[in-house]
Automatic annotation (TrEMBL):
Pfam short name (any one): DsrE
Keywords, comma-separated and alphabetical: Signal
Signal peptide boundaries: 1-23
Top-level taxon in the UniProt lineage: Bacteria
Protein's UniProt name: DsrE family protein
Taxonomic lineage: Bacteria, Pseudomonadati, Pseudomonadota, Betaproteobacteria, Burkholderiales
Organism of derivation: Janthinobacterium kumbetense
């Protein structure tokens, strides 16, 4: 009878650990890296698709170098559609946009030209590194 109790206890413990592991899913956090504005439309589309598939995902887009151009006031895509509309829509869905201050300074771009939905960070590459190393974000480069 003792063997049966031990066997039953082992099965019960196994089931409980499986249930706990299944219920404790890790938060999905992703950083999209844009360093070329010609990839901005694809990045925004990828992010929309990502949110549709995983509505609880936390997404940050970090832009530096020529990648910041789509986050500047008045920027339009190849079809003449303003980027700010797509950016505002994604911000409403929880996406965070970050722009590299080193790029702004290096290219003599006035900070006031950056869309108000975007946050200026000291360094785009440092922000990418920090999000991955310290906050556990997964890296995606569209």
């Amino acid at each position: 009878m003792t063997i049966l109790r031990r066997w039953f206890a082992a099965i019960l413990l196994s089931l409980l650990s499986c249930t706990a592991a299944h219920g404790a899913q890790k938060e999905e956090k992703v950083v999209y890296h844009v360093n070329d504005a010609s990839n901005a439309t694809a990045a925004l589309r990828n992010i929309r698709n990502h949110l549709d598939a995983s509505p609880q995902v936390t997404i940050v887009l970090v832009a530096h170098g020529p990648g910041i151009d789509f986050l500047l006031d008045g920027a339009i895509d190849k079809q003449g559609t303003p980027y700010d509309v797509a950016v505002r829509e994604l911000v409403k869905r929880g996406v965070s946009f970050r722009v590299c201050n080193n790029t702004l300074q290096g290219r003599n771009i006035d900070r006031q030209r950056v869309l108000p939905e975007a946050v200026i960070v000291p360094s785009g590459v440092a922000e990418l590194s920090r999000l991955q190393a310290q906050e556990g974000y997964v890296y995606i480069k569209p």
